[in-house]
Amino acid sequence: MTLSAAASAREILTRLHDVMASRSAAQAKLNSVVNIIGEALHSEVCSIYLLREGVLELFATRGLAQEAVHVTKLALGEGLVGTIAEDVETLNLDEAAAHPDFAYRPETGEEAFHSFAGVPIIRKERAVGVLAVQHAESRKYEGVEIEALQTVAMVLSELIANAGLVDEAGGGSARVQSTATARVTGFKLVDGMAVGAAVFHQPRITIEHTVAEDTEAERHRVYAAFDKMREQIDRMTSQAEFGVGGEHEEILETYKMFAYDEGWGRRINEAIDSGLTAEAAIERVQQRTRMRMREIDDPLLRDRMHDLEDLSNRLLRIVSGQLGTAAQMGLRQDSILIARNLGPAELLEYDRRRLKGVVLEEGSLTAHVTIVARAMGVPVLGRVKDIRRLIAEGDRLLLDVSEDTLVIRPTSAMEEAFEAKLLVTQKRRAAFAALKGEVPVTKDGQRITVMVNAGLRDDVAALDLTGADGIGLFRTEFQFLISATLPQREGQRRLYRDVLDAAGDRPVTFRTVDIGGDKALPYLDHDENGDEENPAMGWRALRLALDREGLMKVQARALLEAAAGRTLSVMFPMVSEPWEFDEARTLFESQRTWLEARGHKLPLHVRYGAMLEVPALAEVLDILLPKLDFLSIGTNDLTQFLFAADRAHPRLAVRYDWLSPSILRFLRRVTAEANAAGVPIAVCGEMGGRPLEAMALIGLGIDRLSITPAAVGPIKAMVRSLDRAAVTQAMAQLLAKPPANLRSALRDWAEAQQVELA
Ligand code: PEP
Ligand code: MG
Known about the structure:
Main location: cytoplasm
Protein name: phosphoenolpyruvate--protein phosphotransferase
Mean pLDDT: 87
Organism: Sphingomonas turrisvirgatae
Number of strands: 22
Bound molecules: phosphoenolpyruvate, magnesium ion
EC number: 2.7.3.9
Keywords: Cytoplasm, Kinase, Magnesium, Metal-binding, Phosphotransferase system, Pyruvate, Sugar transport, Transferase, Transport
């Protein structure tokens, strides 16, 4: 924008500022606005159309017939005004009637005008109205005039939002659809259905004030924000130098390039010159870039655009001081959370009563955030592309993970169909819940122990709801993940005791902390905790606990005290060699002696187990098994190590199948050895919660499963319809000479045998 353009926008803005500050009614303000703009741009006509009840209504005009106000209405996509709103794009025409979308409205008397320019009035990246000017003579408006119009449109969006004149996205039940319905697909991470309003984990900033009181002050705010942002980016880049490979580095370099781009800073400065606040200026420049970029059909550039959006949002957050995530601000209604990706701790920060579903751009089946969501009973759809572009904050969403779909801004017919399906699913769930009193016994009389995985205090309720046999895996690190500081012994002891109390005489197996990997703790030293190239194979779980004896001792004491007078079952994660198990056990025993010497009441009995997650351990079972009271296979980690495939990698999420000969043969061997040694063996990974997989495991000799609570009903139903001898024989045959597709062969077998697979 040239200086004169900035000056002319500024003049308009100064006058608009007075109008907005006045106490007159919204309609009177709009009437003044069209006069000010018309005069300033020497246009015979200036009109404002606003989106109300899904259509664009002429709200104020100078130059068109006044009788047309509140009478002329255009649908989205209809006429020039409707096209501008639908495409969120500017039109600048010397001959309006010659445009293919032109729709003539006789009541307006607009036939007298030839040239036409219109800009969308944008709120939350969506058009909520159109500001248009028209001229009798046939000429295109100049670039600077269009710039001025766009700047004014920004200010108008503040005015009309404050006055509540338009359909606000997500403005409660009375909300009227403002743009089209869309359906997107993704990848099933946690099954289920949910209805709610879209909430961005990193919310977009809403700009409260657009017109500056003091231009110099605004300029300083932007300078300071730029400094802070550059500092952040520099820190990110320098930290990433350690062990971070090509792609990541390239992204950061581009970030850096944008962050230091002088053109960007200059454009924001010019927007401030025109009278905008710092926030509005950043957004104004971003809108302009967005519009330009949209015309370029180049995926690479589109990616860069994403970076620029990220940076622009970062700058906006800094300047506006709105720094938190949606969790910190609190959910106000039933919500579906949208994020690129999330850590388990970030997810746990949300209010469980209002968080109904999660949609991720990335995500994988056994990433801990997925496991946490499963434990919370929150459906998750992963790997949905472009969600940020398609969804606006507050949009109504229907999430149906069973169909891998997300419907954005549904029609009422879609809502009805969804409700109907939800009802059927709830009935099915009720049917499974009715199984809670039924015992999981195969048709030929083999009792299968079905336990649940848990990690939060509330999870123990699942025992009564599902009728499970106990808790086969209590992930103690969840308590560490949800607190801002390292949990103290007293806090830990209280949780463990509550869990044991709630379980009554049903057994509970506590797993000592498995932190590290994708469960990094913000309060552990960065050096020791972060920046690992392969965190899943890094300093985590028992490895970390044995090095940080203090942490393990506190937990040991808390567990021993909590289980006073009962049996304590404890197991260690990521045991890789037998001596690690020995050390962990010795540490617990020394704490037992310590407590005993001080007269504390102790558990009647302590059972020690190991998790088999690292394949190397399978080669030394002859050494390990005699030391164990039980063994539990963590198939989530085990498969990632067997296949050398990161369990959290979105691209690898479906590449390797649990029902592959390599995994099943491996599990068969381990199971046979444990059974021969008389050591109880269980599977506690996600695999055991899937009916077809669980059926295969039973066929391998596994008769103890610890699974996600929602799976207990379906697994019980499967067990009760299964003949164990028959599945054992089928597995022996299938693994002797595996077919190309073992999964479909197993499914065919199950169907032929009428095994219930939910
Ligand atoms: C596993 O790895 O299978 C397991 C049960 O532990 P986690 O998922 O917590 O790593
Ligand atoms: Mg594990």
